């Protein structure tokens, strides 16, 4: 658990994102980016792309294999599919974050919960709507295995994967320094079927600081 | 489970090499570790509509697993089952470890050039994947987290990943039954967490047979309610 020395009043960007909404934004190299879990145990489904070439993007496997650990926390370097450092987690008051659980989709909701669940809002719908603007140069092919900030998805030595109650709380945050210009794509998860968020998706806050603040 | 005996095609993927093939719905692909200690990095796409592809998180969370063996299925990102693992002699195949790129191979095993080494040069899975994907109009954007058949990496309670050496012996095999028409891409490069400093990839044999029809009591279908629904989604796609 590492706290940040940055103050919200100094942030150059400060926005609340409601559950079920997407957020897409460019973060410049050396800027610091914070996500705040305002109400606790919210899943923040997040992808990053190199802003100058979106074929380079966050890679869950490159990130976990390089650090030989599946959990993301302070000190984790978020790696691209080309092995480059995209962002470094510099503060984290939650403790650990998931990158194996992926993003919910109406199709995976059908599999996981019931065929009839397909009408329910899902993260990958938010992702697709966010990237529909051609200026981002992203399509469905670019929606890859994401980070779930604040989500608790333990893996056991026996090879089981479980979705457990959250370990986050109101006001917990994770903060990262951009190592290159990145596009951040977030779906603030609308999932109503998963105990991870207590069946109650809630708002988050995103803040950006310039270097040197 | 009974296995059809008619081998339609059998061949070898040499050590450190890649191959791609079309596997039709209703066929099965058996991969055998020829010498022991093999790793087969694998990617799967819907052959007709390859924006639908293997999705590691959807596969793991639908079946509450972080390893793959007989009874588990591989899910696409569209809620359908690409293929089912109908036979497995070993019990653990790794979905987490990804694959090596050129820099990783150079750092771990040293430099090598084709000029000097000819076809014994040190190849890497990333470049091999990019080449195979390119043959179908696909590329870096289509590269997703792969399966590593025959390899095992345990995740401890603190999240740390540990490679388990010698997971497979000569003759170990895994059989995949295609539930959709698939583009399958295979590469025999070493696992990224394999601590051996020696460049020593291993060859595998593969064979394709007609699969027996998926029965109502099929072990993969009955593995969990999620898989029963995955089969329904897949069958509706082929109506």
Which structural traits does this protein have?
heterodimer, A: 213 residues, mainly beta, 6-stranded antiparallel beta sheet, 4-stranded antiparallel beta sheet, 3 helices, globular, B: 239 residues, alpha+beta, 5 helices
Textual characterization of the structure:
The complex is a heterodimer of chains A (213) and B (239). Chain A has 213 residues and is mostly beta strands. Chain A has one domain. Helices cover 11% and strands 27% of the residues of chain A. Chain A has helices at 60-67, 106-112, 123-130; strands at 13-17, 22-27, 32-37, 44-50, 77-79, 85-92, 147-149, 172-178, 182-188, 204-209. In chain A, the strands form 2 sheets. A 6-stranded antiparallel beta sheet of chain A has the order 1-10-3-8-6-5. Chain B has 239 residues and is α+β, with helices and mostly antiparallel strands. Chain B has one domain (9-237). In chain B, strands 1-12-3-10-6-5 form a 6-stranded antiparallel beta sheet. The longest helix of chain B is centred in the C-terminal third of the chain and has 13 residues, at 225-237. The two termini of chain B are 27 Å apart.
């Amino acid at each position: 658990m590492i706290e940040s020395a940055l103050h919200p009043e100094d942030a150059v960007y400060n926005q609340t994102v409601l559950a079920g909404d997407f957020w897409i934004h460019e973060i410049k190299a050396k800027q610091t980016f914070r996500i705040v879990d305002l109400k606790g145990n919210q899943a923040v489904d997040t992808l990053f792309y190199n802003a100058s070439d979106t074929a380079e993007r966050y890679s869950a496997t490159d990130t976990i294999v390089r650090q030989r650990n599946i959990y993301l926390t302070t000190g984790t370097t978020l790696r691209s599919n080309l092995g480059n450092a995209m962002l470094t987690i510099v503060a984290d008051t939650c403790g650990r974050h998931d990158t194996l659980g992926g993003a919910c989709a109406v199709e995976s909701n059908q599999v996981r919960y019931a065929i009839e669940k397909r009408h329910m809002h899902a993260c990958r719908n938010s992702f697709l709507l966010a990237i529909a603007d051609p200026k981002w140069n992203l399509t469905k092919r670019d929606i890859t295995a994401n980070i779930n900030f604040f989500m608790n998805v333990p893996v056991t030595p026996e090879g089981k994967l479980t979705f457990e109650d959250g370990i986050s709380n109101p006001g917990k945050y994770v903060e990262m320094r951009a190592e290159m210009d990145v596009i951040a794509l977030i779906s603030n998860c609308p999932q109503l079927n998963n105990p991870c968020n207590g069946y109650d998706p809630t708002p988050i806050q995103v803040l950006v600081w310039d270097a040197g603040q | 489970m009974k296995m059809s005996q008619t081998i339609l095609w059998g061949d070898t993927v040499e050590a450190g090499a890649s191959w791609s093939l079309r596997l039709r719905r209703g066929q099965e692909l058996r991969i055998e570790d020829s010498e022991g200690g093999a790793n087969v990095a694998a990617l799967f796409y819907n052959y007709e509509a390859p924006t639908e592809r293997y999705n590691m998180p959807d596969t793991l969370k639908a079946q509450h697993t972080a390893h793959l063996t007989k009874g588990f299925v591989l899910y696409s990102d569209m809620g359908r089952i690409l293929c089912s693992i109908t036979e497995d002699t070993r019990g653990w195949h790794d979905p987490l470890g990804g694959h090596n790129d050129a820099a990783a191979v150079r750092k771990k095993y040293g430099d090598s050039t084709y000029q000097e080494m000819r076809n014994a040069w040190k190849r890497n899975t990333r470049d091999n994947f990019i080449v195979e994907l390119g043959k179908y109009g696909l590329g870096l954007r289509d590269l997703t987290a792969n399966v590593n058949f025959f390899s095992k990496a345990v995740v401890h309670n603190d999240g740390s990943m540990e490679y388990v050496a010698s997971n497979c012996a000569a003759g170990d095999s895994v059989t995949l039954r295609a539930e959709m028409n698939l583009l399958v891409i295979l590469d025999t490069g070493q696992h990224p967490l394999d601590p051996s400093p020696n460049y020593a990839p291993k060859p595998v044999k593969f064979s394709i047979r007609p699969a027996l029809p998926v029965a109502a009591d099929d072990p993969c279908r009955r593995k969990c309610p999620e898989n029963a629904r995955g089969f329904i989604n897949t069958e509706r796609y082929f109506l």
